[in-house]
Amino acid sequence: MKSFYILPLLAFLFSCHVHFCGSLSGLVYASNPVSPPVSSNSLRAVCRMRPNTQLKPEMPCVYGHVFFKQSGPKEKLSVTFRLHGLPVYSQQPRAMHIHEYGDLSKGCGSTGGHYNPLGVNHPQHPGDFGNFVPVNGKIRLSMNSSATLFGRLSILGRSVVIHEGEDDLGRGGNVGSLLNGNAGGRLACCVIGLANPQN
Ligand SMILES: *[C@@H]1O[C@H](CO)[C@@H](O)[C@H](O)[C@H]1NC(C)=O
Ligand SMILES: [Cu+2]
Ligand SMILES: [Zn+2]
């Protein structure tokens, strides 16, 4: 008769409803405090590019990484693009920008517009990287950028978007030109996160 009561109790205790994982991870966090990167005078970030989950059919699937490195708040930010997946014989220039949100919940569509903390016109946004003509379907180059990883204007947690088309660099003579350069659809995007210093 007793086992009639005990068995359901045991089943309950060892079921998923007992939040074993939650309490375990709580312990792990408590014993491993993570120090914020404020003490470091050099910061690196990385963005893992993946095709837009809402990609239009027939569009290329762009993969790769964008690497960011800055040796101090007053130093220049170096940005290295290592992307592939564009059509091998295409010379189509592709625009690349930093967008406001690191939110990919609705694909690249939820990253918002250009990151524009100072309320200026395109192409004066800190993440207006310009146009990239792929070589053998790849974009591999480094540039200096006016964006920063430090302080209130940090691009950490924002996103990088590569577009279908060319950026008109504000010369399009319409509203879109001064907002986003009329670069067309969003091929791929990624969220800018802190790089692991051990990598
Ligand atoms: C970036 O700036 C540094 C320092 O001014 C310079 O040495 C370097 O050549 C620049 N890199 C590029 C890719 O322009
Ligand atoms: Cu963009
Ligand atoms: Zn812009």
UniProtKB/TrEMBL annotation:
EC id: 1.15.1.1
Signal peptide: 1-23
Class in the EC hierarchy, top level: oxidoreductase
InterPro entries assigned to the protein according to its UniProt record, in alphabetical order: SOD-like_Cu/Zn_dom_sf, SOD_Cu/Zn_/chaperone, SOD_Cu/Zn_BS, SOD_Cu_Zn_dom
Cofactor: Zn(2+); Cu cation
Keyword Signal: yes
Molecular function via GO: copper ion binding; superoxide dismutase activity
Keywords, ordered alphabetically: Copper, Metal-binding, Oxidoreductase, Signal, Zinc
Pfam family name, one: Sod_Cu
Note on how the cofactor is bound: Binds 1 zinc ion per subunit.
Domain Superoxide dismutase copper/zinc binding: 62-192
Record's catalysed reaction(s): 2 superoxide + 2 H(+) = H2O2 + O2
Family under the similarity heading: Belongs to the Cu-Zn superoxide dismutase family.
Protein's job: Destroys radicals which are normally produced within the cells and which are toxic to biological systems.
Name under which the protein is recorded: Superoxide dismutase [Cu-Zn]
Organism per entry: Carassius auratus
